[in-house]
Amino acid sequence: MKDNAKPAFAAIPVRALADDRLSALHFRVLGAVAFHDRFGGNGAGCFASQARLAEYCGCHYTALSHALADLRAYGYVQTERQNENKRKRVHRVLYAQSDHFPPLSGDLDTWPAEQQSPDSCSNEQVFSCPDGQQSPGTVGRENSEATDFLSESSPIRYPVKRDNKSGETERGANFESMTALTGAVRARLKALGIPQWQLASRMQISKSQLCNLLACRRKPCPRDLHALHEFATGRMVL
User: Which Gene3D superfamilies does the record associate with it (predicted)?
Assistant: First the structure.
């Protein structure tokens, strides 16, 4: 990913940190989906096209398609068809294995990994669209375009529609600050034998970016806080 690219990191499911099946690309794709899911002006849901996600992740759309298929199979992402355009998809991050969102259109995505999804672009279409024009895979609304940026590192955050507020309550009752919560998460990783530097290396990100993921520095939603609390207190089994 280029240094001047928009930040594509957001809080990811904590259980993913100890999942040896996930490669650096899986983490990049999961982070990009989480970013669009949580910070889009449309509310929850990643409406970005595969071309947009591939650009964020710095990979070819076929690699992105395989990674998304893996994340669906592993229970980290739910994909469904959009109401406005059945050929397009919306992705949602599942922060807990029990999380499942009711489909917007009643039709979950079932595209196999080896088969190209209809919203995919050809090799030439992924990175070569003229300025101001959309590729065939970007027709319809995209929450990647609905998030404004004050700077590269400070997006304007719109409220994400989440119903579960138990995370905020538990955090306030058990941790005096986000720093304390982050410290507990780091201690838990160490207790599990997952060194911070090793995890950052496997995800191919810097330790500071890993800290952002763990600390949910971009205004955490209740589900993030609840997951972090469960992990830090040892009640979440990885």
Answer: Winged helix-like DNA-binding domain superfamily/Winged helix DNA-binding domain (1.10.10.10)
Q: Which residue has the tokens 């590192």?
A: 153
**153 class by beta-carbon count within 10 Å (0-12 exposed, 13-18 middle, 19+ buried):** exposed
Q: Which of 42, 31, 4, 22 is nearest to 216 (CA)?
A: 31
Question: Are 61 and 126 within 8 A, CB to CB?
Answer: yes
Whether the predicted pLDDT of 14 surpasses 60: yes
> Cα dist. 21→16, 39, 99, 171, 218 in Å?
9, 27, 20, 30, 26
**CB-based contact 191:232 (threshold 8 Å):** no
The whole-angstrom separation of Cα 218 and Cα 38 is 10
The distance in angstroms from the start CA to the end CA of the chain is: 29
| pLDDT tens sequence across 74-123 | 999 998 876 666 667 888 888 766 666 655 544 444 444 444 444 433 33
